Amino acid sequence: MISQSLALYNWNNGVIMIGIFALVCVVLVGILINFMMSGKPKEDLEETDDTATNL
Fold first, then answer.
1. Residues 13-48: pLDDT tens digits?
2. What is the dihedral of CA 21, 26, 31, 36, to 10 degrees?
3. CA neighbor of 30 nearest in space, from 18, 20, 38
4. Cα gap 23→42, rounded to integer Å
5. Does the reported pTM lie above 0.70?
6. How far is residue 47's CA from residue 51's CA, in Å, rounded to a whole number?
7. Quick one: pLDDT band at residue 2, thresholds 50, 70, 90?
8. How far apart are CA 23 and CA 4, in angstroms?
9. From CA 37, how far away is CA 53, in angstroms rounded?
10. d(Cα 32, Cα 41) in Å, to the nearest integer?
11. Is 48 exposed, middle or buried (0-12, 13-18, 19+ CB in 10 A)?
12. What's the CA gap between 13 and 10, in Å, rounded?
C-alpha cells in the first residue's frame, strides 16, 4: 500500500520546461508575423528598383 502512494518521479520540472518552450515558440512566431506585416509593400520595392537602375 505504501509503494502505491510513493511518487517515483516528479513531473513538475518537465511540465514547467515544456511550458517555457511553448511560450518561447509563441513569442518567436509572433515576432516573425510582426516582421512580415511591417515590411514594405511590393509596389514600394518596385519603385526603388526603378530609380536605382536609372542612375
1. 889 999 999 999 999 999 999 999 997 766 655 555
2. 130
3. 38
4. 32
5. no
6. 6
7. low
8. 34
9. 27
10. 16
11. exposed
12. 7
Cell of 40: 514594405
Closest CA to 35 of 27, 46, 25: 27
C-alpha–C-alpha distance, residues 14 and 55, integer Å: 60
Q: Residue 37 and residue 33: Cα distance in Å, rounded? A: 6
d(CA 16, CA 31) in angstroms, rounded, equals: 23
- Give which of 22, 4, 26, 24 is closest to 14, Cα–Cα: 22
Separation between Cα atoms, residue 54 and residue 39, nearest integer Å: 24
